[in-house]
Write the structure tokens for this entry.
Amino acid sequence: MRRTKAEAAETRCAVLTAAEQLFFEKGVANSTLDEIAAAAGVTRGAVYWHFASKSDLFLQLYNAAQLPRVDMSDAAGSGCEDTDPISAVETIALDWFGMLASDVQRQRLLTILLRTNFEHEFEPVLQEMDALSAEHTKNMERIFAKAEDKGQLSPLWTPAACSRAVHWQMKGICWEWLLFGRKFDLVILGGDSVRKLFATFRR
Amino acid sequence: MRRTKAEAAETRCAVLTAAEQLFFEKGVANSTLDEIAAAAGVTRGAVYWHFASKSDLFLQLYNAAQLPRVDMSDAAGSGCEDTDPISAVETIALDWFGMLASDVQRQRLLTILLRTNFEHEFEPVLQEMDALSAEHTKNMERIFAKAEDKGQLSPLWTPAACSRAVHWQMKGICWEWLLFGRKFDLVILGGDSVRKLFATFRR
DNA sequence: GGTTATATACGTGCCCGACTGTATGTAAAC
DNA sequence: GTTTACATACAGTCGGGCACGTATATAACC
């Protein structure tokens, strides 16, 4: 029963979704291709048609849902990066919480990635994540530097310190939320904590 | 060739150490009992003598190196919890960094735990970790409340908010350090960030 | 203090299920 | 008719659990 191209694409997508679900629930190593295929409503033959191996499936899963590059110039769209840089970053940070809270797929992917041992074939993924992280902090630092130039930054802080503080605060919040069962309200409690932190940045 | 009790204890310890090392490097699921036994200089027979199963080995590993309960009253030993509560908590936090940075075993164990899927038989471990975490934040909040009573707390913050901020900040720092190859100096950079955060707590 | 009995601390080998990869079949799409 | 998109069957390996063997430590007894 050969399927049309559209149906094949559906199948491929179903396999990816099933893999994401199972990788998230049981971990990558504890999930079998049989389970994944069954969850997708196909057999292992279909999986092997679309993906070369389990590792390939993992990598395709990572590449399919590309992590957002959180372009800081988006904040320029909100129109205040030049007049109130600190608030601009704050908005981006809070928006990120909202986005993550409403995107179950991203929650699962990030959780999987956090639990991954990046050894051997998966190392490039780790490099990418590192690069992305470095880019984010660099962009943030740049905007905080603007705030400093305008005299809006508290003398207690430096742009680099602000950037690191926000970065770590958000990672702490998001990771605990993801790794330990999302037991609190990310937007409310997490947002509150971030807002309080940003308040200390302002002169 | 039966060994003495002391030798047996050594063997057991060697297996635990080898397991910790391999679980850390390759993940629990990707480490075989054969590898672990070989790394410990014994065979699987020895492993099965000391441990009922692989899961049991994991649990014994967790129980062997009990997470520190970071008794906040220890800070009373430093003598300033009552006069300068904020500094007392700050000291505990910074000490924690130093302790983690110098304890490779704890680094590995925490990394393993972070990457663990706590499903089925491992759920109680998750509960324990949660309880410990809750206890820490509660103790911190209590001390910050003392600071508030003394009028030492900035009006920007509440005891609960301080506690959460410190908690998440430290988790963000430690977890990034552990999960992504310890690429920065935990005590220097992490400590600096935490100190700056504490500075904003003070009136 | 020597002998003996028993528990101990493993090593070794086997079984069994599970999982991966591949080869082949097949029916429909093109 | 050929290629596609799977399903099915098969081979092979790997790893965990367990039974069993075995040599020695340890204790009990004489």
